[in-house]
Amino acid sequence: MTRAKEIIEYMESLRNEEQRQILMGFFKTGPGEYGYGDEFLGLKVPQTREVVKMAGLDFPLEEVPELLMNRWHEVRLCGFLILVAKFEKLATKRLENNAEAVKKRDEIVTMYLQYAEQANNWDLVDLSVHKILGHWLLLPSNLSPHPDLPPIGEGDSLQMAYKRQVLDELAHSNNLWKQRMSIVCSWKTSQMGDPSWCLRYAEIHLHHPHDLMHKAVGWMLREMGKRVSMDLLRDFLRQHAHEMPRTMLRYAIEKMPERERKEWMSIR
């Protein structure tokens, strides 16, 4: 029996029917809802994190897809959190430029992108993407861009152009959760002082039709303002507040003084 199968059997043994019903309602799994068809065991996130700890950092990377492809939401979350734990271990300051660490980080990123559609609800995205893709954006990588890919901006390296291509493909896909990945990954880049990713994908998703994206973009703009520069946030709002969905704008300005929030909301 593989270690992945052992984890699956253990998590299935923790099934909680009462909690399962609560989660199925909370994550909108009914017909016509964004999480339609998702299946839950009824485990709380701390329980899943404990399983990740039990699995350990030596859990075979090649077995993670068995978790990611599982029918149960919590098992897929376990798989994504194992990738997070592995990536973070390889992304410390000491290992940023270590050749073997770079190679292994790239393997994790490649797997994450390959199985991105398995992160088919907002929590699976929000608990993983910034810690893997978001961090990778600011780290050395050997993943090769297409040789004909032009740099996007003046002074861009080919590697930076490739990373933007990866996120652009997520942003312009027809999958809501991949679209959410492209903006929520900027949580990490903003934490590390780089506002460019947030501003780029906030603008791309400005007219997105889904409320979940309105909330995500507003949230990331708020974090960018808090972590990097409120003046940058105000500059963005001066350009776009008049066209932003109300929910997006409200989320973006949450950390501003009340009087200023009222001024921005009056623009809509």
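The above is record 1. Record 2 follows with the same two-line structure.
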Amino acid sequence: MLTSEDLRFFYVISTQPSLTAAARKLNVTPPTVTQRLQAIESKVSVKLVQRQARGISLTEEGYLLQKKARFILAELDQIHTLMASKKNLISGTLKVLAPLGFGNDYIAPLVGEFQQQHPNLIVELELSDNPSWAESHKWDIIIYIGELRDSTLKLATLAPNQRFLCASPHYLKNHGPLKSPRELRDHICIALRENSEDVTLWRFTHNDSQEQESIRITPTFTSNEGSVVKNWAIAGHGIIMRSEWDVQPELNSGRLVQLLPDYSLPSADIVALLGTDSGARSARTAHFLQLLKARFAQQPWLKK
């Protein structure tokens, strides 16, 4: 089967007065031209060029292939030009997958702002705390928070994100302070179900000794909605483990109190996952990623 390179090679030969002239045009040796021409003729099983004393002439089949090659190569060049222009044009459909709570609070407003800046853009935003990795190819950008298990996607970190153990002052007044991770067994715990993580295994690292301790909690309350879990904690119903982006405003206001500050929980950086390298990304994906990086570098949740 002929390739586009075969067509380009033959088209140059067909426009030159001799194989020697074609070799100069292609910057190869005359024997290379002869061998490549023979290979092309073998592919189509017909003679394309007749050698004459003063040069070459095309057979009837050669003229037909020259005509078709001119048309096909022009179409290919037009496609390349079109794709190059599309690559720099922010249009088409931007498909974004994001966690439910974070997506509602931070991604949805940015998506709206981005579309207003680029009216030719269509946006599909899906919010889910349990994404299907088998369908990751459907999305231009996946916003993810938590323990990452898929390593086939390209990762761009948007912002650091710690996890905190929190409770309300009302809860601590009624149930007493928490002095060590193992005392969680004597407290009311609230768990958030997300990302298929083991949400009842809470892992702690002591900041000074680096000693690690894992506690299996038995939650009294569970939900798949982060705002529900946080509101339960604010109401004094129990202890939660939540991301910095979600509870920092409540910690700032005093509605929640950080527990066990001498211990660290596994961090859950906010990242963008992409299926393409930077050089192959559409303009809509590349520019939206730039917007995400610029806005989240400021960690807006710290200022609320």
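The two ends are 64 Å apart (CA to CA).
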